[in-house]
Amino acid sequence: MPCNRKLRVGQTITERKKEIKDAVAELDKKLANGQAKAVVGKNGAIAFTGNWNRQDVADACAFRMIQSNGSAQAKLAIMRAEQMAGVKVNRQLVGQGAHSHDGGKTWHDHK
User: What is the mean pLDDT of residues 71-75?
Assistant: First the structure.
């Protein structure tokens, strides 16, 4: 998983995996209770806003993890963001690296 590539000095891959899992679990919980929000761009990219301990986890990685084993409430929050944007998350575009650094106000393509 791309999230695993950012090891801190002296950090093991096992420690990084736990760090990622904990960060995404926090995001999942905050999406479910409204403390974090999913934003889908008109291009189909996704970003997450709100105060969550991101731990250098990319939005694309968090999205994939939530889609594969997240809570129904977090998935519903993503679906609501898709409805608000009028477009579904484009998994291929997200996989190619489309992202936002400002919570979905501007988007950077995969080039």
Answer: 98
Distance from CA of residue 16 to its chain's centroid? 17
Query: 106: Cβ–Cβ under 8 A, 6 or more apart, which residues?
Result: 100
Residue 28 tokens read as 């999942």
- pLDDT-based confidence at 107, cuts 50/70/90? confident
3-state secondary structure of 37: strand
Sign, Cα dihedral of 51, 9, 61, 69: negative
Angle between helices 59-69 and 13-33 in degrees, nearest 10: 80
Identify which of 90, 24, 87, 19 has the alpha carbon closest to the alpha carbon of residue 61: 24
pLDDT band at 4 (very low <50, low <70, confident <90, very high): low
For residue 51, give both structure tokens: 């105060």
